[in-house]
Amino acid sequence: MPREAINVSNASILTVGGPLLPRGRTFETADWRILAGCWHPVTLVRDVGAKPLGVTLLGAPLVVYKAGKKIVIAEDLCPHSGVPLSMGGRR
C-alpha cells in the first residue's frame, strides 16, 4: 500500500496575481519561479494531527493542520500577532 503524502504547489498557496516570493527564500528568483510551478510533498498525512505542523517549502515557512476532515496548508504566520501558527493550536 503506497504512503499517502500531502503534495502542494507553492504557486497555488502563495498566489495573489502570481506567485509571491517568500520571505528569506534561499533560491534565486528565476529558479524559485520555475520550482514554484511544480508539486512538492511536504509531509505524510499520518503526520498531520491536532497540533499545527510547521514545514518549509522552497524557503517559505508553511503550516499544515486539520480543519474537520480537510487538511489546510497556509503561510506559517499569524496576521494578528506575527508569530508562527505552528507554535500553537486553536483555542
UniProtKB/TrEMBL annotation:
It comes from the Bacteria. Gene3D superfamilies: Rieske [2Fe-2S] iron-sulphur domain (2.102.10.10). Keywords: 2Fe-2S, Iron, Iron-sulfur, Metal-binding. Pfam families: Rieske. Residues 39-91 form the Rieske domain. GO terms for molecular function: 2 iron, 2 sulfur cluster binding; metal ion binding. The keyword Metal-binding applies. This is Rieske domain-containing protein. It comes from Acetobacter nitrogenifigens DSM 23921 = NBRC 105050.
